[in-house]
């Protein structure tokens, strides 16, 4: 073994992207033990704040990833690597919708309002996904989310449905535990929010934007609390993001205004990210969305149509890069790489499997039919994605787009 | 050879210490810079002697660490300037040099430099071949060829999409 002390080796490995670490498991057995260790995987997840892998989804559903760090805002022209990402393609599982989608630590929740559709937790890096059992309900979905509970070291999925109970409209909440592979009902959500809303994960809680507050569901205690909005006149259509460890509130679609909650939960820590005049300097027309908040650099990265804007908060100036070679109508989201194995860590095998009986029974329908029509029982809960996306665009693993700075 | 840091020679106000590398070179360092290293701080608290001998850090590495400490001890520099100094500090350095640096930060307990160097080493490593890593870290491959091939087969996607480098 080398003469590098183990603490330093650990610091170095923690700073490597997940993909490199999957390769470096073959360096030697000791490295594999470190990389596969659950506490290392946990630390690696918590270390990903600076990971700026951007996922781009085209309007036809094809996925690409690129590194935001590779964008150079000073050079006139450059080329960047854009990697094709394989989608989950499986009968009964909905297609990945446009971004933003519910995600946590590099895992993505693919959910759907149709109760017949199978929800999955997906690791886009490894291609592994885990199918959730379907809860035995038939109601109107208004919110969902994926988060991590550090107390029980468990990933949890939440669904909130609007329903009528005893003549009253209630927002029934179910929480799914990946470890237990089962859903359970918790206290109803105390208030309504806009339909189809994806919860954003931060500080052990999922957050949804309501009319006049932020609703937070603490995943450890599985109960709701409220967080304050900025005490200014707010737009009707709001959007909430959790970027760079902060909640970011903006005017949906056009992002005419944007605020960041600098200290989590503290009402007067909401701070303007730009004024309306500064917003106009970035181009008045078109959609604008926040995609990354690089706190240490004081930069907010946004998507403006198919361009990427870097807003320097202190210097009040915006730089724009245009990525050529990708289709129009993109949606994008930051998604770090995750070492989390959806086969080893969920319900399969060991003592955890015994608890599965407590879970809601899985209703399988067509999902077990393979493309050739023969019924096949999938291996316990998890499948690696082998099939490529079946869309019109031809596969292009190394699209290189020229970038022109305006 | 006695090298002074940017703050110049010993003055009545500013206390300095002399740090000697394993190959005998001596460096005059302001105390405010030296105490940024947890190990040096402890030594200075324990003994009166203003000469510290480091038996396992060579002069080149020590000079780099001292340049880092002196910059970070300079109250006249903004955090922004210190951050860009950190970037400059590790850029273009060979992996071997970084290895010695990171070992020195371990001996001297300079946590923030350790993180900066570890990050740079990770940046260099991330697109390298497994064989390169074994060579640089002097690691003996203890897998059987079959076992190694099996792990690669199961995570073949991790090898699929980029040009991996071997130098």
UniProtKB/TrEMBL annotation, chain A:
CDD domains referenced in this protein's UniProt entry, alphabetically: F-box_AtFBW1-like
Coiled-coil residues: none
Lineage top rank: taxon: Eukaryota
F-box domain: residues covered: 1-44
NCBIfam families hit by this protein: F_box_assoc_1 (TIGR01640)
Protein name, entry field: F-box domain-containing protein
Organism from which the protein derives: Rehmannia glutinosa (Chinese foxglove)
TrEMBL record, chain B:
SKP1 component dimerisation domain span: 118-158
Signal peptide: none
Keywords (A to Z) from UniProt: Ubl conjugation pathway
Xref: InterPro entries: SKP1 (IPR016897), SKP1-like (IPR001232), SKP1-like_dim_sf (IPR036296), SKP1/BTB/POZ_sf (IPR011333), Skp1_comp_dimer (IPR016072), Skp1_comp_POZ (IPR016073)
Gene3D superfamilies on file: Potassium Channel Kv1.1, Chain A
Metabolic or biological pathway: Protein modification; protein ubiquitination
Pfam families hit by this protein: Skp1 (PF01466), Skp1_POZ (PF03931)
Family of this protein: Belongs to the SKP1 family.
Protein name: SKP1-like protein
Protein source organism: Rehmannia glutinosa (Chinese foxglove)
């Amino acid at each position: 073994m080398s003469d590098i002390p183990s603490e330093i080796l650990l610091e170095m490995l923690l700073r490597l992207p997940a993909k490199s670490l999957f390769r470096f498991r073959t360096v030697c057995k000791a490295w594999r033990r470190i990389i596969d260790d659950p506490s290392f995987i946990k630390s690696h997840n918590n270390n990903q704040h600076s990971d700026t892998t951007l996922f781009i989804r085209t309007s036809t559903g094809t996925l690409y990833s690129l590194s935001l760090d590779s964008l150079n805002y000073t050079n006139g022209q450059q080329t960047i690597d854009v990697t094709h990402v394989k989608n989950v393609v499986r009968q009964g599982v909905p297609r990945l919708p446009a971004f933003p989608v519910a995600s946590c630590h590099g895992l993505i929740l693919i959910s759907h309002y149709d109760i017949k559709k199978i929800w999955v937790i997906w690791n886009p890096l490894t291609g592994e996904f885990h199918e959730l059992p379907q809860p035995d309900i038939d109601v109107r979905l208004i919110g969902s989310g994926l988060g991590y509970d550090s107390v029980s070291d468990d990933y949890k999925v939440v669904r909130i449905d609007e329903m009528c109970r005893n003549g009253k409209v209630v927002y029934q909440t179910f929480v799914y535990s990946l470890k237990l592979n089962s859903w359970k009902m918790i206290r109803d959500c105390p208030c309504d929010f806009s339909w189809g809303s994806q919860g954003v994960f931060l500080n052990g809680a999922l957050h949804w934007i309501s009319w006049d507050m932020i609703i937070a569901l603490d995943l450890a205690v599985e109960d709701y609390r409220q967080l304050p909005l900025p005490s200014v006149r707010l737009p009707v259509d709001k959007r909430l993001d959790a970027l760079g460890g902060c909640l970011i509130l903006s005017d949906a679609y056009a992002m005419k205004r944007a605020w960041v909650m600098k200290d989590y939960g503290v009402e007067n820590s909401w701070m303007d990210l730009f004024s309306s005049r500064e917003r106009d300097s970035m181009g008045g027309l078109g959609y604008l969305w926040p995609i990354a908040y690089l706190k240490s650099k004081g930069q907010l990265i946004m998507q403006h149509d198919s361009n990427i804007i870097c807003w320097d908060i202190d210097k009040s100036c915006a730089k724009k890069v245009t990525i050529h070679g990708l289709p129009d109508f993109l949606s994008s989201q930051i998604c770090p790489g995750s070492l989390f194995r959806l086969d080893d860590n969920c319900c399969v095998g060991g003592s955890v499997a015994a608890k599965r009986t407590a879970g809601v029974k899985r209703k399988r329908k067509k999902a077990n039919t393979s493309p050739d029509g023969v019924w096949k029982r999938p291996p316990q809960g998890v499948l690696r994605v082998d099939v490529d996306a079946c869309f019109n665009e031809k596969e292009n693993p190394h699209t290189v787009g020229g970038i022109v700075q305006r | 050879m006695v090298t002074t840091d940017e703050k110049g020679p010993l003055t009545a106000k500013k206390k300095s210490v002399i740090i000697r590398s394993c190959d005998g070179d001596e460096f005059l360092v302001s105390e405010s810079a030296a105490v940024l290293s947890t190990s040096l701080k402890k030594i200075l608290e324990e003994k009166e002697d203003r000469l510290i001998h480091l038996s396992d850090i060579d002069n080149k590495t020590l000079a780099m660490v001292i340049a880092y400490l002196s910059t970070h001890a300079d109250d006249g520099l903004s955090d922004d300037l210190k951050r860009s100094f950190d970037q400059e500090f590790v850029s273009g350095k060979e992996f071997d040099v970084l290895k010695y640096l990171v070992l020195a930060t371990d001996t001297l307990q300079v946590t923030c430099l350790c993180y900066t160097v570890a990050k740079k080493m990770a940046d260099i490593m991330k697109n390298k071949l497994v064989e390169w890593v074994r060579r640089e870290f002097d690691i003996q491959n203890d897998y059987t060829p079959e076992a190694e091939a099996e792990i690669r087969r199961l995570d073949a996607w991790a090898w699929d999409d980029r040009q991996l480098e071997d130098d």
